[in-house]
Amino acid sequence: MKLTVRIVGVLLLACAIFGVAGVLATWAPDKSVESLSARWAKPPSQFMEVNGMQVHLRDEGPREDTVPIVLLHGTSASLHTWDGWTQSLDVQRRVIRFDLPAFGLTGPHPTNDYSIAAYVHFVNAVLDKLGVASCVLVGNSLGGQIAWGMALAHPQRVSRLVLVDSAGYPLQSTSVPIGFRIARTPGLRVLAERTLPRGVVDSSVRNVFGDPSKVTSELVDRYYDLTLRSGNRKALAYRMEQRVSGDEAQIKRLKLPTLILWGAKDYLIPLKNAHRFAADIQDSRLVVFENLGHVPQEEGAQETVKALKTFLDLR
Fold this sequence. Notes:
Layout: H1 2-25, H2 33-40, E1 46-50, E2 53-60, E3 69-72, H3 83-89, E4 95-98, H4 116-130, E5 135-140, H5 142-153, E6 158-164, H6 178-183, H7 186-192, H8 198-207, H9 217-227, H10 232-241, H11 248-251, E7 258-263, H12 271-280, E8 284-289, H13 296-299, H14 301-311
Parallel strand pairs: 3-4, 3-5, 5-6, 6-7, 7-8
Antiparallel strand pairs: 1-2, 2-4
């Protein structure tokens, strides 16, 4: 009996030691905006005060373009997800992109309000600050739901709408990135606010690519670093608590030229949702990319931006 107690005691001690070692090995405290900006906020990045936040923003291309293209990223992404598109567009068009609250270098919302209504209010305030009366509004995933929410709330501001693997209907995911699952789990997300194994980020990014071999070390560096931006991990947990359900009735109210772009290998928001958008939005067209995943603008920038250019009659 005493031997059994000793063995159990040794095993428990070993587990505790390995647990502590694991935490120490993956310990990752928050990073300041200043420390991250040298790499991730190079020119033409700027910071602009909006609603009590210092918003990380890039405003590129000809200023005489009175109807710029505005790009909204998805959950846990940043304005950098649109790099490939911007390089292809900013010679002809003014392109505006920024980090949404809770993500990138913009960081948490002052009151932790991550409802779609709050995001729509935020985007509208950014456009006010920039003096943009009307724009082509593009959104991926969460950004897509914000984009069509903007088109309904402020129709005079959105001349055309582009939805890229957009949220909007009840989610029926067949695969969810591990980072999202951790953020939704109360016990784990508290631990995740102080630790961050690089493998979690690597796995999460690969999960949303149609071809995981396209995920580079630099790409993982960016997602990893910006997740560590002060307050972002806690903000993601708040964002996951404020889950956004679909609203088919609202989507059917959209009546403007709309382009729907979708990766057929999107397992977070499956392709059937693309067909629902196409059926529910009267003046819409759908383009499907068979080999791309949930972030087709990042995974296949050139082929996806080509579809946008066709929609906008650009050459």
